[in-house]
Design goal:
By secondary structure, the protein is mainly alpha-helical. It has seven helices and no strands.
């Protein structure tokens, strides 16, 4: 049973990464996300089916842990995109997403990894991990934030603004998901 749970969890992680491939069509991304969700639900059901009635509280905790983690990783992307669309006044959400891909490439995947790492650190009782994740992200993005290779229509201040707003939105979402779980 453990091997099956680990296999389904690994499949869900691979599908999550594949769903963020920039050139994949929206239908492909929806299908991949749906299969990923099905894998996570199957893992939850397998954890519940464990050893009968004994330990049901621990199994429900594991299911909540997985569901809140999945929500932290996948739910933050659309929220961040919506907030950045508000920042890009007058642009549609699709235009804002396209602009984000031009300005800070790989942001969706980096954001997913960031949210997952922050959620895991907080749930594991290691809040210092939040500082480490943010330091790594800031140091890794610094050269790109100061790069003169940005499109002519984008100022360095606009790039930095998008980075800060996107990061704060993403971090607050994952912290909220962890806090929801830990408040129970």
């Amino acid at each position: 049973m453990t091997a099956l749970i680990l296999s389904l969890t690994a499949a869900a992680l691979v599908l999550a990464v594949l769903a963020w491939v920039p050139k994949a069509g929206s239908t492909v991304q929806i299908v991949l996300s749906g299969v990923m969700l099905a894998c996570l639900i199957a893992v939850g059901l397998l954890l519940l089916a464990g050893d009968g009635v004994d330990g049901w509280r621990e199994r429900w905790w594991n299911v909540l842990l997985l569901l809140a983690g999945g929500l932290a990783v996948t739910g933050g992307g659309p929220l961040t995109t919506s907030v950045l669309a508000l920042v890009d006044r007058g642009n549609t959400r699709a235009q804002s997403t396209q602009k984000a891909g031009e300005v800070l490439r790989g942001g969706a995947l980096i954001g997913s990894l960031e949210r997952g790492a922050i959620y895991a650190a907080l749930v594991a009782g290691w809040p210092e991990g939040l500082a480490i994740v943010l330091a790594i992200k800031g140091l890794a993005r610094y050269p790109e934030l100061r790069s003169p290779d940005q499109p002519a229509s984008v100022t360095p201040q606009a790039v930095a603004e998008r980075f800060i707003i996107g990061t704060f939105t993403s971090v607050l979402w994952s912290v909220t998901c962890a806090a929801f779980l830990l408040s129970r």
